[in-house]
Write a structure and sequence with these properties.
- By secondary structure, the protein is an alpha/beta fold.
- It is built from 8 helices and 17 strands.
- Strand 12 and strand 13 form a beta hairpin.
- Helix 1 crosses helix 2 (43-59) and helix 7 (203-213) runs parallel beside helix 8.
- The chain binds FE2/S2 (inorganic) cluster.
């Protein structure tokens, strides 16, 4: 987890400033590249909307590019992230349009469907107080699932990079919690100091309450689970945390899976070397492997567990489990590929 390719979405508003500052701090800490993205409704104002972020990136000597786009804001942001193979999208949770409430519909769509991790930032009273290390106390929520393990791995790496403290939280049966947390701390945390909290209650509410009570400044959660919602792109617990946590939330996304995690009748993306393969396991267990690159403009398709199809998040192409086109704009089937 280095977060070398970072996208920050901004509308130039004061609430977006926190996201800009945090994205720049992250990019600086990883010596990564920052794409400063603005989706405009008025092209004449687009340059002004990115001016503050660009000035700060220049001042902090962060490698950056400006990407101005129009169209549906969420689709544009996700498409840009996908084209750049971004590892994380940073966005304010309120906005990107002023009329939106606590977490706006654009942001919600990005959190639900992004092809990578999403960091939601809450507005600070004074965004200028966001320093080089924007987080000091990180809460890692885990249920012991493979997705949570990947989220924990990212959390420990981020904490190390920012010299932040880590606490692990498990919500559920105490005996299971002891085993899960001991294992996570030893195998993923590799013995790094981490407080362990085992709590009972409704997972989303309990994690949000813990973040509030103990004043964590970042909660990290996997995009699936924590109640085995394997079919959902974003499980109900991470969704609740993203919407209501009092602090910033990093939703660590598991797009790529292990072949063994894909059940009969399901599909998933498996990363191999530097390319991604769309894998469909037929009900009889046989595996079909096809390229995960949409034949329209190359975005990565995603498995839609509800409809049992491959969907492209960029412009809406849809393919059958074995890659034939159902809906365009793509005209050609997904190409055969090998694992
Ligand atoms: Fe355009 Fe997939 S890249 S629909």
């Amino acid at each position: 987890m280095a977060y070398k390719r970072i996208v920050v979405a901004t509308d130039g508003s004061s609430t977006a400033e926190t996201a800009e500052r945090i994205a720049i701090a992250l990019a600086r800490s990883t010596k990564g590249t920052l794409s400063i993205v603005h989706v405009f409704t008025d092209r004449a104002r687009a340059d002004a909307a990115v001016a503050r972020a660009v000035a700060l990136a220049e001042e902090r000597q962060v490698k950056h590019e400006i990407v101005l786009a129009d169209g549906d804001p969420a689709d544009a942001i996700m498409g840009i992230a996908d084209e750049r193979d971004a590892e994380i999208i940073v966005t304010g949770s309120r906005g990107l349009f002023k009329s939106e409430q606590l977490i706006g519909s654009v942001v919600r769509k990005v959190v639900n469907n992004a092809p990578c991790d999403v960091l939601l930032t809450r507005p600070r009273e004074d965004p200028a107080t966001v320093g080089e290390a924007p987080y000091h106390r990180i809460l890692l929520a885990t249920d012991g699932s493979a997705t949570a393990d990947r989220a924990a791995r990212k959390g420990f790496a981020l904490a190390k990079r920012l010299a932040a403290s880590v606490a692990l939280v498990f919500v559920g049966h105490p005996k299971t919690g002891e085993l899960v947390l001991a294992d996570t701390a030893a195998t993923i945390g590799e013995g790094a100091p981490a407080d362990q909290m085992i709590l009972e209650g409704e997972p989303g509410e309990t994690i949000i309450g813990t973040a509030r009570e103990h004043r964590f400044d970042l909660v990290i959660v996997g995009n699936k689970g924590m109640a085995g919602a394997r079919a959902a792109i974003l499980g109900s617990v991470p969704r609740e945390i993203a919407e209501f946590a009092p602090c910033d939330v990093l939703v660590a996304r598991t797009i790529a899976q292990n072949l063994s995690e894909i059940q009969p009748g399901e599909g998933g993306i498996v990363a191999t070397g530097d390319h991604k393969v769309a894998v469909y396991r037929r009900p009889d267990g046989a595996v079909v492997t096809i390229s995960a690159k949409c034949t329209h403009m190359g975005c990565t398709v995603k498995w839609n567990a509800a409809d049992k199809v491959w969907d492209c998040p960029c412009h809406g192409s849809r393919y059958t489990p074995t890659g034939e086109v159902i809906n365009g704009p793509a005209e050609r089937a997904l190409a055969p590929a090998e694992l």
